[in-house]
Amino acid sequence: MKIHNIKYLLIAVFMLAFSACDPIVDEKHLENSTDVAGVQLSASQSPAGGNKITLKMSSPGITGYWDYNLGKALTNEVTVVYPIPGKSTFTFVGTLGGEFFSKTIDVQVDRLDTPLEQDWYDLVSTNTAAGKTWVFDGAAGTGAMYWFMSPPDNPDSAMGAWWNAGDCCPPLDVAGKMHFDLNGAANYNHYQTATAAAEKGSFVLDIANRKLIIKDSKILGYEAGNTANEYTIITLTESKLVLYVPRSLKDPTTGWTFVYKPQ
């Protein structure tokens, strides 16, 4: 009898020991604090109808960012001086708590009554709707430095040419052009030659980070560009544009520099 009692006691002890090893799981599931319809977006203009726009997401418990087409703001509220007249759509991307969402708001800009930063005028001209055309600042066989290999990963060395490729081996679109305008959108056109049809796209001028990004088209001198179509702005004035890539498609071990002038 005692043997049976000891056996049952040992079984009980082993059961307690194994159950004590089981992890205690405190499962917590993320839950939405509201639905997309409940996310409150607003836009105000100062003055009314003008291009100084404040975008605001005012629902509590929501986090995310504003995509205002020409850049992103990692905040619930942002004020931008928008360079494009007409109706524009802005997007707030965020999380409801348990899932991600995006929601848009339309804003009508009737006039550009708040001046833009000078870089906009330098790139597209003061007639922003008509825009501006840029070509290479040089030609093959002249010794001009307009399209050349440069040190990698260092914008400060962009003008230090390793090989003046444009002098002997110009790009395929050396006689082409590119055009920027703000006629209803940030429009960009690439022309393979002076008379070729336009390859239409768009662009982002990121002034804060000194970047020019081409979308759905290609930069003039694209053979030496990069897959992201993102270029560091070295110089941007009314009469000169210099762009740089830290790693070039032409030679991934080098950088590349592009020099343009207005047509």
Would you give an account of this structure?
This is Lipocalin-like domain-containing protein. It comes from Flavobacterium potami. With 263 residues, this protein is mainly β. Helix content is 12%, strand content 36%. It contains three helices and 16 strands. The strands form three sheets. Strands 8-10-11-12-13-14-15-16 form an eight-stranded antiparallel beta barrel. The protein has a four-stranded antiparallel sheet with strand order 4-3-6-7, with no helix packed on it. Strands 1-2-5 form a three-stranded antiparallel sheet, with no helix packed on it. Strand 6 and strand 7 form a beta hairpin. The longest helix is centred in the first third of the chain and has 20 residues. It is elongated.
Parts with pLDDT < 50 across at least 5 consecutive residues? 1-22
Put simply, the count of helices is 3
Radius of gyration: 29 Å
Record field, number of beta strands: 16
Taking the alpha carbons of the first and last residues, their distance comes to 107 Å
| Whole-number mean pLDDT | 90
- Give the % helix: 10-25%
- Strand and helix order: HEEEEEEEHEEHEEEEEEE
Order of strands, widest sheet? 8-10-11-12-13-14-15-16
Largest sheet, in brief, is: 8 strands, antiparallel, barrel
Strand content: 35-45%
Q: Which overall shape is indicated by the principal axes computed on the Cα atoms?
A: elongated
| Category by helix and strand content | mainly beta
Organism: Flavobacterium potami
Keywords: Signal
Protein name: Lipocalin-like domain-containing protein
Signal peptide: 1-19
